[in-house]
Amino acid sequence: MSETAKILLVDDEPAMLRYIRTLLEVDDYKVETASTGEEALQRLDKGMEPDLVLLDVLMPGIDGLETLEQIRHKRPGTKVVMLSCVNDTKKVVQAMRLGAHDYLTKPFQKAELDAVIDQCLGQGKTPPGGEVEEVADDVFFIAASPAMRKIRSQAALVAHVDIPVLLLGESGTGKEVLARLIHKLSARAHRTFLKVNCAAVPADLLESELFGYEPGAFTGATHAKPGKFELCNKGTILLDEIGEMPPALQAKLLHVLQDQQFSRLGSRSIIKVDVRILAATNIDIPQALATKRLREDLYYRLNAFTLQLPPLRERKEEIPILLKHFMSRMAEQYARPQLPLSPPLLEACQRHNWPGNLRELNNFLKRYLILGDENLAAAELQPRHDGNGGGAHGDSASRGSESSGGLKSLARTAKDEAEGEAIRQALEQTNWNRKQAAGLLQISYKALLYKIRQYRIAETKSHHKLSAGA
Q: Residue range 323-338: average pLDDT?
């Protein structure tokens, strides 16, 4: 964005108008002002095309939120930053839902204003390679598509508001990375970030993992142990795969969200904490609510704001950037020279549907780097006859005749089908008690949950078809 960007400043306080206008004109922005929402909308109706609108929330006449709504209707592409003397959480959330790009609490310093303007208008400076941002040690958030840049902008906005955020998206889309980004951009960035995978911890241990316990709380509890909520006080906790949390424990979590207090197992003492809760899931929310798998009251408490990560197949323009980034990181990690990403290989990657999303892409590149065979890597991505770029369907003859599969493909498919059928039988035998089924199959609980998702095994007796996708 050039230095002659046009900014429309809307505020009913003359002193504030003069102050902000001075800050903007120092940096050579073209500034126009309006003292009411009605006046700002009239400017737009007369043909003004600002690059950015700085809009006060509390004004006489139509307030800032209503003005924002009309601006989004009249000029959907115009970026709007809300200004307010009070950090009103409800108004901030409402502004985000209406499409505001950021929110500044008055009084603010020039550096804060500059940072917000750079975030809103600086996207023209984004290099063709896209935006790669380190959010933790060796953890990167990549925003190289319009959809991901919008999520980056929303994450920056919601990070400043201390409310729960629900992160939705298919497995492997990067929900944990997004959670770490929100933490990094928040006022809690210098505090603890902890992740609890609700699916990886057996249900009977999850409560003590989250809330801790006192000596004698259960067999084997010989000493007191703080839970994750205590360890994370003043910080951020990510409850991953929240849909796997038992309903009884969901009720206790709801109380923590409401009161920010709880008791350890085996104790009557109340512990108060200040923890920002982020929750992530890939479940079908309406179905989970209908089947009582997810408590409705907990869902609405967690759903103060929702960020939906698109699958990789819907942002394929990012694939070349992701490949180069992963290649660079892994080559350094394994002390190997980087391998070329030839046009045919890039084309094969663009055609593939990536049902496992970023996780699948990362693992694919890891195999390519270790094996060093581009033809083998490209063959792995060849579409199969079901057309989904990675399923295991169709009869044995058609699979055996695939140019990229041959005997290896046939063996892999037969193994997938046999494994999936064994898992389905174990689940039906234990009446869908996943812990018992894992014991029966002699695999870990976490591995069973992964395979249930991998083979898309649904809890229904009529389910006999299995597909091997992420």
A: 90
The yes-or-no answer to whether 6-125 and 134-308 have a common fold is yes
Indicate the CATH number for domain 134-308.
Answer: 3.40.50.300
How is the chain split into domains, by residue range?
Answer: 6-125, 134-308, 318-381, 405-470
pLDDT tens profile 408-431: 556 566 667 777 888 888 888 888
Q: Are 103 and 84 spatial neighbours (Cβ–Cβ below 8 Å)?
A: yes
**With 90 as the cut, is the pLDDT of residue 198 above it?**
yes
What is the rounded CA–CA span in Å between residue 314 and residue 145? 10
The single residue listed with the structure tokens 């009309």 is 70
**Closest alpha carbon to 38 in 71, 7, 67:** 67
Q: Which CATH architecture has domain 318-381?
A: Orthogonal Bundle (1.10)
By the 8 A CB rule, do 52 and 27 touch?
no
CATH architecture of 405-470: Orthogonal Bundle (1.10)
Instruction: Give the bridge partners for 205, in sequence order.
Output: none
Q: Which helix (H) or strand (E) holds 82?
A: strand 79-84
What mean pLDDT is predicted for residues 203-216? 89
> Is there a contact between 376 and 344 (Cβ–Cβ < 8 Å)?
no
Model confidence at 156, pLDDT cuts 50, 70, 90, reads confident
Which letter, b or e, does each residue of 15-50 get, where b requires 16 or more Cβ atoms within 10 Å of its Cβ?
A: ebbeebbebbeeeebebebbbbbeebbebbeeeeeb
CA gap 392, 20 in Å, rounded: 61
Residue with tokens 């992420």: 470
310-334 burial by CB neighbour count: b if 16+ within 10 A, else e? bbbeebbebbbbbbbbbbeebeeee
pLDDT on residue 268:
86
State the pTM of this model: 0.70
- With contact defined as beta carbons under 8 Å apart, do 391 and 405 qualify? no
Averaged confidence pLDDT in the chain = 84
CA angle 152, 127, 307 (to 5 degrees): 10
Q: Looking at domain 6-125, does it have CATH number 3.40.50.2300?
A: yes
Q: Is the Cα dihedral 394, 396, 399, 405 positive or negative? A: positive
